[in-house]
Write the structure tokens for this entry.
Amino acid sequence: MQNNAHITVRNLTMAYGDFVLMRDLDFEIKQGEIFIIMGGSGCGKSTLLRHLIGLKEPARGEIFYRGESFTDASPEHRDDMLKRFGVLYQSGALWSSMTLAENVGLPLGEFTDLSPSDIREVASLKLSLVGLKGFEDFYPSEISGGMQKRAGLARAIALDPEVLFFDEPSAGLDPISSKLLDDLILELRDSMGSTVVIVTHELASIFAIGTNSVFLDTETRTATAIGPPKQLRDHSDNPNVRRFLLRGDGGSAEEVA
Amino acid sequence: MSQNGELYVHRTADGATNIRIAGSWRMRDALPDPESVEADLVLSPQPHSVTFDTDDLTTWDSGVLTFVTRVVELGHARGIQVDRSGLPAGVQRLLALSEAVPEKEDAKATEADASFLEKIGAGTISFGLSVNEMLAFIGDASVVLFKFVGRKVRFRRSDLLMLTQQVGAEAVGIVTLICFLVGLILAFVGAAQLQQFGATIYVANLVGVAMVRDVGALMAGIVMAGRSGAAFAAELASMKVSQEIDALSTMGIDPLEFLVLPRIIALAVMMPLLCLYADFVGILGGAFIGITMLDLSFQTYMQQTADAVNLVDLVGGMFKAFVYGLLIAIAGTLRGMQASASSAGVGAATTSAVVTSIVFIISAAGVFSVVFYVLGI
């Protein structure tokens, strides 16, 4: 693996028991890319993300980070790799018994030698990066859904991760908040140089920020297209991919009364 | 024109069945029985097609749809063509929509009609799996506990203190109430029997020994199972729903260390103390009866209790409470961590946590009784 691939997925098969969700996934995510995992509802996008961040083990195949196997890593080594990830969950997944500052500060307290006052300062800084300055002592239940998501992002970037994962970042957000979040993702990628992996089916976001993508097809149970989203939309020879990226206008007769 | 739906079925001259529906066909109206249609379709000679006449239909909703769907199915089963052109345009479009995606045959539940033996088999297998899971969880928790002794675990001290307060200090009220009443009940039961021999003073022995050896720990345990075991399960299960546990895992923080361990420690530490307190309150409950109904003085009652109870009994009871505490905490956190990520999962986890804790406690109490008896304690 001599190229600049940051994440490599090799022959990955995902299954729940006997039920195979996707087979033979094979793709690379390069350093600094904004990589979109897309596909219809229930096709296994979020499951693929769970595999990438180690919440689920592959039925077959392997995942590599910078050429090192994540799948076969020892628990200690894997913990080290995990510390370089930042994950933003669908609903934020903030720890509800802690204030925003404590949420952002927890990873700092666990994995750095910073003093409590330094941690507080870094947490405030991260919160200000996502536009939540002054909300340090609020509990997650006291702020809106969009703010929770941004606070989740602040926590995800607490340790300046090398890879940022997003699970449906725009789900439940209005178009403007969703656009602001997209801008924030771009800004963070540019300034921190992180690789970004996003699971989404929000076409506006896909075209606005995606530099590369993989399309998971429910019918064939594998990845049917890999490439920059705009290119796939205009030049893909797979009708399913084009139909998805054109919001169903690509051919099929889906009648709505 | 009538308010309620009307249904007329007749054969036309060319051998087709004409169904005329009129009036108001809505689900909340009294709808005519579609049986007459069925009766006509089986009548020989079989009609070659079915047509609809809806000129007098005033209002309609899904009531018409289900009726027509039924007719279509009947016709389909007998190879009779159903001509829908007589139906209102809206009904036709909705029918087309409902038929747009073919029925998924294998999606229907198949387990419903499993045989009795099959169910027993499946139940046994799932029981085996759940025992396996439980042992694995206890194993993992023990590993974490050893790491705790070696001071190599991650959790927040403030969490532990807060939990200790929640399961300890905040439970004092309910423990007081329950144990005072249990002491009182024991005294009543004892007094009724012992009065026959004029040995009412021995009520103090009965209450004292029962509370200190077993009942104090048992009552504290059952209160804590309903209070803290359920709370642990609900808390962890809803953290699972909101992906908070995933968020810990992907940060390289072991949820067992961070969430489960402090709960086990808090309960295991506080249970013996609560038990001691429960013993004391139970004895007070007995004394209350002794003084008000048996004409004993407070001093006499307490003296009699002190003579009856020894330190071994007291420490034995507290040890039992310690074990019950471990069991409740393990049952509660286990069920919480196992919960399926849905709101129904939270409810199921809570119920199962309380049931599991109480089964654990009572089984352990049985084992303790035998062991203590054999050991002569």
Summary: Strands of chain B lie at 6-11, 17-25, 49-53, 57-60, 81-82. The interface with chain A takes residues 93-94, 96-97, 100, 154, 156, 159, 239, 242-244, 246-253 of chain B (CB under 8 Å). Chain B has twelve helices and five strands. The two ends of chain B are 90 Å apart (CA to CA).
